[in-house]
Write a structure and sequence with these properties.
The chain is of the alpha/beta class. About 35% of the residues lie in helices and about 25% in strands. It has a domain at about 5-140 and about 160-185 and about 240-250: 3-Layer(aba) Sandwich (Rossmann fold). Strand 1, helix 3 (about 50-60) and strand 2 (about 65-70) form a beta-alpha-beta unit. The longest helix has 14 residues, at about 215-225. The chain binds S-adenosylmethionine (SAM).
Length: about 260
């Protein structure tokens, strides 16, 4: 299992208190269903966590059977949905062609093999099934990235995949013409440490973020000073490039049959 899982388990009890951005993105993602016509029998919330999207999906599709999947069992414990499954998104414990709709909010930026992820989703979707997701693009946390870059060359902030590359990976995994959209959301903070607290609170801190050594503390302080250069009208901005995508599995899909060339 990837090493990010303990962070999400540890953050589970405080996640919702630090997840204003995640709540807003889950809302905006669920609103996409106002203009997409579906009537799923079985749907999955992939990387469901504590259930910010799950709850909205249940309201949008009340007749559907919702299965919430996440590899962090503590997060699932906080998810009040009835049917929760602890599993890795790359190895879903579902039969081929058994699911009508997969939704996923802000999980995919943690997945290093997007093609593998989309192939697995494509496998479990029924022909004509839909995948809808949100994830982060490269401009996400650009102020934090820039502030750390002055301090050292460590990867303090995750790198995020460009919207077009996400769409390409989906296409290569067998999905029909993905529709991709992007928008920028900016949170503002009084202090940079408040942003760091939110990131830690949702389990999104990286291993390099806050070392307890003297050099680590000095570097952290310097990064905080650098962040001040972004102060605008009294507030510190934190930019999020939010990507939304959806695509259908073709009605006459051959599923996972490998063809010899
Ligand atoms: C930022 S949280 C988002 C949770 C929820 N979708 C929301 O909008 O609040 C990312 C979630 O994805 C889960 N996750 C990340 N990689 C995963 C994987 N490979 N398999 C299953 N869950 C994964 C994490 O455990 C975490 O709960």
């Amino acid at each position: 299992m990837p090493s990010i899982r303990p962070n999400f388990n540890k953050a589970a009890s405080q996640y919702n208190a630090h997840a204003a951005l995640q709540e807003e993105v889950a809302f905006r993602l669920s609103e996409k269903l106002n203009v997409i016509s579906i009537d799923p029998i079985v749907m999955i919330d992939l990387g469901a966590g504590t259930g910010l999207l799950s709850e909205k999906l249940s309201k949008k599709c009340p007749k559907s059977h919702l299965i919430c999947v996440d590899f962090a069992q503590q997060s699932l414990r906080a998810n009040t949905n009835n049917h929760n499954v602890c599993a890795n998104a790359y190895q879903l414990p579902f039969a081929d062609k058994s699911v009508d709709f997969i939704a996923s909010s802000l999980m995919m930026q943690w997945c290093t093999d997007l093609k593998g992820l989309f192939e697995e989703c494509h496998r479990v979707l029924k022909p004509g099934g839909l995948m809808l997701f949100s994830t982060f693009g490269p401009d996400t946390l650009k102020e934090l990235k820039r502030s750390w870059s002055v301090v050292d060359s460590e990867p303090h902030v995750n790198s995020f995949t460009d919207m077009h590359d996400v769409g390409d990976q989906m296409l290569q995994s067998g999905f029909n013409s993905p529709i991709m959209e992007m928008e920028t959301l900016t949170l503002t903070y009084d202090k940079a440490v408040d942003l760091m607290r939110d990131l830690k609170g949702i389990g999104a801190q990286t291993v390099h973020n806050r070392s307890k050594s003297l050099t680590g503390k000095t570097k952290f302080k310097k990064m905080i000073e650098m962040y001040e250069s972004f102060r605008n009208e009294g507030k510190l901005p934190a930019t999020y490039e939010v990507i939304y995508g959806h695509a259908w599995k073709s009605e006459n899909s051959l599923g996972s049959i490998a063809l010899d060339s």
